[in-house]
Amino acid sequence: MPDFIAPDGHPRCQWCGGAPEFLPYHDNEWGFPVADDQRLFEKLCLESFQSGLSWRTILNKRENFRIAFHHFDFHQIARFGEEDVQRLLQDAGIIRHRGKIEAVINNAQRAQEMVDQEGTLAAFFWRYEPTELAPPQSQTTSPESIALAKDLKKRGWKFVGPTTAFAFMQAMGLLNDHALTCITRERVEQAWQQFQRPV
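Structure (tokenized):
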């Protein structure tokens, strides 16, 4: 797959060329390792909302989602009721899909249970860090994402299949899936080396 040459003259992952807003997201967020529970929960929710849609749609609405869902504080979302569902279904700034909205509320409750059981969401998710890597951006699922999705389903989480789980793992840095020629790949590698795996 050919590189996308950014305005600074350096190569990036090909998908960066799809929209102007992709470049800052790619350079500053995508693939950098994350151990913050709120950010992990946010990303999993946004990946669920993306199901059947483009990431560009979700990225452009991300700030609206953050406002609507209290910055993805799952302790607050876990208390949402039908009034909140109705409020969100009227919010033109987000994706108004009842099933996905209700899944976020359900998953917030499951996240609370996971914190009680595991200590943090990060400790749970980072158990699925792959040990063997395929060539960058050559797959949409992996044995680890299939196992993660299966475990989440068993724990009662919704709208998190293997493809969603893999996109989450790519974005949150559980693997460095930047193209080999991408200038950001080395920065992610450095972040990885300094990253303290949550336990």
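Residues 43 and 72 are 9 Å apart (CA to CA). The domain at 9-194 is CATH 1.10.340.30 (Endonuclease III; domain 1).
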